[in-house]
Amino acid sequence: xxxxxxxxxxxxxxxxxxxxxxxxxxxxxxxxxxxxxxxxxxxxxxxxxxxxxxxxxxxxxxxxxxxxxxxxxxxxxxxxxxxxxxxxxxxxxxxxxxxxxxxxx
Length: 105
Known about the structure:
By secondary structure, the protein is of the alpha+beta class. It contains 4 helices and 2 strands; from the N terminus they run E-E-H-H-H-H. A two-stranded antiparallel ribbon has the order 1-2.
């Protein structure tokens, strides 16, 4: 379906984030906690999309295509969609697509 999911290998299999997580909600105050879900994944995907665009790919459909095609495929498409986000592969594919290099700045 074109979705991209992030997987970070921590104890909680979440994305490590510094936040104030009150004890009343199960946390221990200010610290680093592993969270899951789209609220954690979407900023990472947005940043990856920005890096792809920085390589010269401007069409939103093409940006999505590159992110989906370069994602590491998993055997559970319902859970992982297009796979695990691979920013290095996405930016490399975008660079190959446009032949644009950072040294052109």
